[in-house]
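Archive entry. Fields below.
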Amino acid sequence: MTARWTIPPEAVVLITGARQGIGRHLAVEYAKRGARVVGCSRTEPDWSEPGVEHLTADVGKEADVQRVMSHVRSRFGQLDIVVNNAGIAAMNHALLTPNATLERVLQTNVVGTFATCREAAKLMMKRKRGRIINLTTVAVPLALEGEAAYAASKSAVETLTRVLAFELGAYGITVNAVGPSPIDTNLTRGVPKDKLKKIVDRLAIKRDGTFDDVQAAVDFFASDQASFITGQVLYLGGA
Amino acid sequence: MVSEGLVPTRPNQPAEEIAFLGKSAVCDSVNLVAYLVALEEQVGSEFKVPVALMDDKAMSLSKSPFRTVATLADFITSLLQEKQPS
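PREDICTED_STRUCTURE:
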């Protein structure tokens, strides 16, 4: 037996938040492997890649999510893999976090992920096969100070992942989550270096994460071989 | 449209009496969800309007619209009427 994770030939992959960072890396990588990739973000990317289509959409808006799925349905008639990567952070002390910020974070991270999972599952269930991978964070198990809104939103994503695993298991759809440690992206760029170091020091493996680390975990959950693995949250770096 | 593909649970059962809930239900909860998702899509495509069968209204009704083919058909009709321009 070869120890290699495979996805269906010409798999249709949807990646939210694909304009930059982890989402862009995953979109380009899957396209290079022959997948038909649909990415979406709130604004147009400044890059293009053969095999990647980009739609402007805000996952926090239900109509946008439905429009993206409608495009996938009419263009490809199937959806194999969804990576719910779109997310926004609010790095601030809870006492300095207004409700408007909290609502914005919850709208994208929780409501957006929920809606994308729901609409994706409707498309996947027809073929009795699908892989949903949600992005969470090590901020949840580490209970990081200054990330109350962000960590709380991702806790919700983790619970959503576990519940959906049960609700969608009967339709051949697996739902798992990957929780990266700090990676150099726009999301962490505003966080002071010493704070990022403190987070890394609390991990079992004390180094910054990379896009390839995330790719490896996503590859596993997305693979044909992971058909019996669902409801799991995999933290990178040993949180 | 609502009774399409459903197999009655007793001989000569009128299609509109086919039940989705209770002991004589034609399917289990897993298949009921799959059926409702497919029906939602079919209604939306047939009448060219997005319809959410499992919205707050459906859940808050004192009697579930998902009891039988007849109650579900009535519910869909009411949803479509609401969407008609007045």
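CURATOR_NOTE: The mean pLDDT of chain A is 95.
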